[in-house]
Amino acid sequence: MNPIEGTIDSQSKSETAAGVKAGVAAGDEAALHPMFHNPRKLRLFKERFFYGSILLATLCALGFLFYLLFSIGAQGWEHLDMDFINNFPSRKPAQAGFKSAIWGTVWLGGMTLIFSVFFGVGAALYLQELSPKNRFTSSIQVSISTLAGVPSIIYGMLGLGIFVRFMGMGRSVLAGSLTLSLLIIPVIIIASREALKAVPDSMRMASFALGATRWQTVRDHVLPAAVPGIATGVILAMARAMGEAAPLIMLGALTYVAFVPSGPLDPFTAMPIQIFNWTSRPQEAFHDLASTGIIVLLGFLMLCNSVAIFIRLRWGRKL
């Protein structure tokens, strides 16, 4: 065969194969839905698909939440009365109450709020407004962000070693509140710093232009403007602290307390600890009491959050 003819035959074969591939590709494109040929319709389809996925995930989460609330309410609502609120725990389910756990949580929450807000907001003010910007402060900020994700049981071990044993506080309300303060202080610092960052710099510059010092600017202008955001962070942090049981179990908080704490150095129990104690009992009646305790704990958290939100809204209106 002539070499020239062989070259021509190979070229024709390659052109034929390319034509077949192009025909197949054209057929595939023609088989697609017309929507995929329109970029605008394709974008709207992706947007609706994403919106539907998010809505479905939200509805599933709310469905599980309402199922849990309904099952807990159906199991524990009949035991919710004044005897349950006013009685101390007992080995007899018919006489068991929640009084010591309620007052222990009030003591624990009040002291935790004092310690965590004082140190958390103070640290956030210093890091955001007053500290020099260098590697040392940057390392502190990274460490705080890391501490916010540490499991709560680690803080319980830390509180057991430092407050209970080393400082000799024993299994007291003070040791428990300091341990829970360590747990939520990083969260409060991060939330408070974000609230302070949201205050416009024009407010600071205007205060400096009128002759105010840096501390006067922070105290009289920046901090009041950031209070709504700081209050939101404190609300979320306290809600987490009041529902924690693992750190208190590590501290050795008592599961059977037939008295109300009268001071910060007294032994205590808390609502999560009492609920944990009742759920570990084999009797079904104690499981019903645990559901009643969960209802009281949820109501307590909702009450505290409502008061904090009301204070935040009133403060925001004044500004």
Number of helices: 12
Query: Which structural class should the secondary elements be placed in?
Result: mainly alpha
CATH class of one domain: Mainly Alpha
DSSP helix fraction: over 70%
CATH arch. level architecture of one domain: Orthogonal Bundle
Which spans of ≥5 residues are poorly predicted at pLDDT below 50? 1-8, 15-31
* Tertiary shape: globular
Specify the biggest β-sheet.
Answer: none
The end-to-end distance, rounded to whole angstroms, is: 96 Å
Query: Any idea what the CATH superfamily of one domain is called?
Result: MetI-like
- Radius of gyration using CA atoms only: 31 Å
Write the layout of secondary structure elements.
Elements: H1 3-31, H2 39-76, H3 82-86, H4 99-130, H5 135-147, H6 152-166, H7 173-197, H8 201-209, H9 214-242, H10 246-251, H11 271-279, H12 284-318
Helix pairs in contact: 2-12, 4-7, 4-9, 4-11, 6-7, 7-9, 8-9, 9-12, 11-12
Task: Please outline what is shown here.
The protein is 77% helix and 0% strand.
Structural features, described:
With 319 residues, the chain is mostly helical. It has a domain at 98-318: MetI-like fold. The protein is built from 12 helices and no strands. Helix 4 runs parallel beside helix 7. The longest helix is centred in the N-terminal third of the chain and has 38 residues, at 39-76. Mean pLDDT is 81; it is low at 1-8 and 15-31.
What labels would you give this structure?
single chain; 319 residues; mainly alpha; MetI-like fold; 77% helix; globular; disordered N terminus
